[in-house]
Every structure is written in structure tokens, then in C-alpha cells.
Design a protein that fits this description.
An eight-stranded mixed sheet has the order 6-9-10-15-14-13-12-11, sandwiched between helices. 31% of the residues lie in helices and 24% in strands. Helix 3 crosses helix 6 (239-260), helix 3 (128-150) packs across helix 13 (418-426) and helix 6 crosses helix 8 (276-285). It is of the alpha+beta class. The chain has helices at 6-12, 114-119, 128-150, 178-182, 193-203, 239-260, 262-272, 276-285, 293-301, 319-330, 380-389, 398-402, 418-426, and strands spanning 18-30, 35-40, 48-52, 71-80, 88-99, 154-155, 161-162, 187-188, 205-213, 226-235, 289-292, 334-340, 356-364, 368-375, 411-417. A hairpin with a 3-residue loop joins strand 13 and strand 14 (368-375). It binds 4-amino-1,4-dioxobutan-2-aminium adenosine-5'-monophosphate (4AD) and magnesium ion. 4-amino-1,4-dioxobutan-2-aminium adenosine-5'-monophosphate binds next to strand 10, strand 14, strand 15 and helix 13. 4-amino-1,4-dioxobutan-2-aminium adenosine-5'-monophosphate is lined by residues 166-167, 191, 193, 214, 223-224, 227, 229, 231, 369-373, 413-415, 417, 419-420.
């Protein structure tokens, strides 16, 4: 049976409307002759206040037993709400218990730590915070598809099981039995990029959006072993076109979150991270800053800051450096380009200076790197040399080199870490709390 969502009742319901809703109780308060229930179905942050009067036939036998976590179906009439915030509440004429919650229901009214909530990932979507996060994720995912679809990008479904190490960094999960089954070693993909390049060199503009896996032992608030990545790839495109796409992409998706998740954003702003909504608006409204890696390193060296990791040309930027650049130096998202070849993947286009490649990272406040990408090396011989220099097995990448022999064109793309974007948008401190079922070193429950 479908009933209207709590969201639609709160938005459109008028006093006098007959309404049936179903959901779970966040709280149940029983006073002398009345029970007050806060009912949520996850469609929005706010719950619908239900007033259950003693005239209900099951008032003594059931209604007065109701507590947090119980599932109910309520039929009644909308009446004016004396409480603040909402203009209507539901006066129950019939209340049916759909599912009881046992006494040891762990989500009581008090605030629980996010660490604790991770241990009950089967129940945490019912909390305000996680419910809001998952609604934001959903809106962001929709906006991502919409952004690319409106621009004629083809969604390419790249494989999760793969033989290729797209980053050449050896951080892959091996698939046990892959060799026997597929006749070759098989792993979980770290990125759909190489396959997306195949797509771009036929369909011109493609994107992937799916789970990726990294077997890096990074126990940080920004790393997951399984995360979702969005990877557009464009033929006949250089680094500049790539940077332009990255900027309009991020701004469009963040605007969609502001527009469609206003209630949840107000919650994050008030309860999770003060100023997060304004920060998001700032990103939507302000053009990004851009500078080369070489310039960024100069600025870092001249900053007078004490960093845990020393900076010098040739070293990879650490999160502390990235954050200083985007937070302190420019105060907005920053696109850093043209990194030293030695710290970037084999597939990036080599600049004429013989030292740098056409890489691009987008850094945002609080998170640091949110996007990594590049123009790709489309010159066969240059690519081959680079792969040899990095010690890659050319037999493994024969098809990748082939693409450079049959109608090769300049092309470029990037990867957005979906969870890092949701983290930035919501202000959630730990990336484990913006994905329904986090996978991190030592933990893969549910
Ligand atoms: O910078 P990365 O490693 O780039 C690539 O994988 C390219 N092949 C993408 C491309 O050009 N098509 O990863 C891209 C983004 C990072 O900027 C970061 O936001 C996110 O993916 N990311 C992670 N997010 C969560 N947990 C991890 N362990 C992550 N590693 C990377
Ligand atoms: Mg990167």
C-alpha cells in the first residue's frame, strides 16, 4: 500500500485533510490522556507530530505501549499544530502497530557518537544525521547524472573485476580464484579511467560512476577502501577544457544540493559544522582559483608555516599543504596543475619542460583533494617510454597502447571522490559517516 510521504504531508497538507501515513517513531510521549508521537519515514528530516487520543480502540492495549523505533500506520485528520515549526499535525482516528521495537532498541533520544553508530550500521540510517547524509548523497548522484546527460556524455559501465592497474600504484585487492576462473590474475578496480578512455575514443564524451577499491592502509578521515568515483573522459580535450568541466561540474552539483536539500543543509549547519551551508554557497558563486604545482610549492615554502611534512619541489602535496593552499592562501577551491612527473601516474601527458605532467587536482577547504585528473598521454612513443621507465609490464597494457596507434587524439578526464564531495557538502568530519557501509582497514561489517 502506498501512502503519502511525511515530506509531502508537511509540504502540502492542509487542516482538515484526511491522511494515512506510515513510518517509525522517533519518540513517543504519553501524558495523562493523550499520546504524542514523532513519526518519521525518512523522506525528510522533520517528523510528523501525531496526537493519539484515548478514544482509539487500542489506546490502552497498544498505543500506550508505543516507544521509540516502533513502526506504525496512522490514519486521521490534519489539525492545526500549536507547536512551533510545523503548521499541521495528525490527529489519529486509527493507529495500527506494524512492527514492535524490542526494549533494547539502541537508538534512544540521546545523541550517540558517530563511532558507536558505525557499529549499528543497520539502524543508523534512522538517525537525523545519517538520514540527512543519505538524502544528500541521493540528490548529488541525481545531479551528477543530470549534469552529464544534459551535456551528451554517455554513461559507460566500466568493470569492477579487472586485470588492469589503472593507477599503476599496486594498491589493488586481488580476487582469490581469479587466476583459475578467468585464466589471469584479477583484481578489484581502483579506477574506471583506462576503460573510460576506450569509451571516449569512440563516443567522444563518456563518464563512469561506480564503486572503486583501494587496498591502501590509510586510516584517515578521508580514506575508504571502497568508495564511489565519478570519472568523465573527453576526447579532443586538453587540460584547460578538463579544468573548466571540473569547475562547472562541482558547482552545478553543489547548487543542486543547496536547492534540493535545504532542510538537511540547515541541519548540518546547525548541528554538524557551523558555516557549512555558507561555504557551499561560496563554492557555487565564486570562480575557482588556479595555479601550477610549482607556484603552489613556492607559496608553501614562503608561508612561514610549520608543516609536519616538509615541502619541496618534487614532493607530493600532503593534506596539510592542500588545506593551507585552499583555506589560507586562496580561501576557495583551488585547481593545482602541472605536477612533477615523478609523483603522478604513468598515463599523464608530459609537458615540454621534461619535468612536469598535465595533471590537475581540485582542492577544497576542510577536505583537500576532492578531484584528481589529467590530460592523457596520447603520443604512443612517449607513453611507452614512460611506462617502461615506471617498470610497468607492457604486455598488460597492450590494448591501452593500441589506442595510441589507431586514431589517437588528445583527451582528458578526472575522477571525483564522491564521498569526499558529500563530506565537503555536509560538513561531516569522517568519511565513514557519509557512506552507508564503510569499508576501511580492519572493518567490513554488514
Ligand atoms: O586521484 P585519484 O587516485 O585519481 C584517479 O583514480 C584517476 N584515475 C581519476 C581519473 O582521472 N579518471 O582519485 C580520484 C579521487 C581523489 O581526488 C579523491 O577524491 C578520491 O578519488 N579518492 C578517495 N576517496 C576516498 N577514499 C580513498 N581511499 C580515495 N582515494 C582517492
Ligand atoms: Mg589523486
Amino acid at each position: 500500500m502506498t501512502t503519502p510521504s511525511v515530506k509531502s504531508v508537511l509540504a502540502e497538507g492542509r487542516v482538515g485533510d484526511p491522511v494515512t501515513v506510515q513510518g517509525w517513531l522517533r519518540t513517543a510521549r504519553h501524558s495523562k490522556g493523550l499520546s504524542f508521537l514523532d513519526l518519521t519515514d525518512g523522506s525528510c528530516l522533520a517528523g510528523l507530530q501525531v496526537v493519539a487520543p484515548p478514544e482509539l480502540e487500542n489506546y490502552e492495549s497498544e498505543v500506550r505501549l508505543l516507544g521509540t523505533g516502533w513502526a506504525v500506520r496512522v490514519q486521521g485528520e490534519l489539525v492545526e499544530s500549536p507547536g512551533k515549526g510545523q503548521h499541521v499535525e495528525l490527529r489519529a482516528a486509527q493507529l495500527e502497530v506494524v512492527g514492535e521495537a524490542a526494549d533494547d532498541y539502541p537508538l534512544q533520544k540521546k545523541r550517540h557518537s558517530f563511532e558507536y553508530l558505525r557499529t549499528i550500521a543497520h539502524l543508523r540510517p534512522r538517525t537525523n544525521s545519517l538520514g540527512a547524509v543519505f538524502r544528500v548523497r541521493n540528490v548529488a548522484a541525481r545531479a551528477i547524472h543530470q549534469f552529464f546527460q544534459e551535456r551528451g556524455f554517455v554513461w559507460l559501465h566500466t568493470p569492477i573485476l579487472t586485470g588492469a592497474d589503472a593507477e599503476g600504484a599496486g594498491e589493488m585487492f586481488e580476487v582469490e580464484g581469479g587466476e583459475a576462473f578467468f585464466g589471469r590474475p584479477t583484481r578489484l578496480t581502483v579506477s574506471g579511467q583506462l576503460e573510460a578512455e576506450i569509451g571516449a575514443l569512440a563516443l567522444s564524451n563518456v563518464y563512469t560512476f561506480g564503486p572503486t577499491f583501494r587496498a591502501e592502509n590509510s586510516n584517515t578521515s578521508r580514506h575508504l577502501a571502497e568508495f564511489w568515483m565519478v570519472e568523465p573522459e573527453m576526447a579532443f580535450c586538453d587540460l584547460r577544457g578538463n579544468a573548466e568541466l571540473a569547475e562547472s561540474f562541482l558547482r552545478t552539483v553543489m547548487k543542486a544540493i543547496l536547492d534540493d536539500c535545504a532542510e538537511d543543509m540547515a541541519f548540518f549547519d546547525e548541528r554538524i559544522e557551523k558555516g557549512v551551508a555558507a561555504a557551499l554557497e561560496h563554492v557555487v558563486e565564486t570562480p575557482f582559483e588556479q595555479m601550477t604545482y610549482t607556484e603552489a610549492v613556492k607559496r608553501l615554502e614562503a608561508s612561514g608555516q610549520k608543516f609536519e611534512h616538509p615541502v619541496h619541489w618534487g614532493a607530493d602535496l600532503q593534506s596539510e599543504h592542500e588545506r593551507w593552499l585552499t583555506e589560507q592562501l586562496v580561501g576557495k577551491p583551488l585547481v593545482v596543475t602541472d605536477y612533477p612527473a615523478g609523483i603522478k601516474a604513468f598515463y599523464m601527458y608530459a609537458n615540454d619542460d621534461g619535468k612536469t605532467v598535465r595533471a590537475l587536482d581540485v582542492l577544497v577547504p576542510r577536505i583537500g583533494e576532492i578531484i584528481g585528473g589529467s590530460q592523457r598521454e596520447h603520443r604512443h612513443d612517449v607513453l611507452k617510454e614512460r611506462m617502461l621507465a615506471q617498470g610497468l609490464d607492457l604486455d598488460e597494457y597492450g590494448w591501452y597502447l593500441d589506442l595510441r596507434r589507431f586514431g589517437s587524439v588528445p583527451h582528458a578526464g578526472f575522477g571525483l571522490g564522491f564521498e569526499r564531495m558529500v563530506q565537503f557538502a555536509t560538513g561531516m568530519a569522517n568519511i565513514r559517516d557519509v557512506i552507508p557501509f564503510p569499508r576501511v582497514p580492519g572493518y567490513a561489517e554488514f
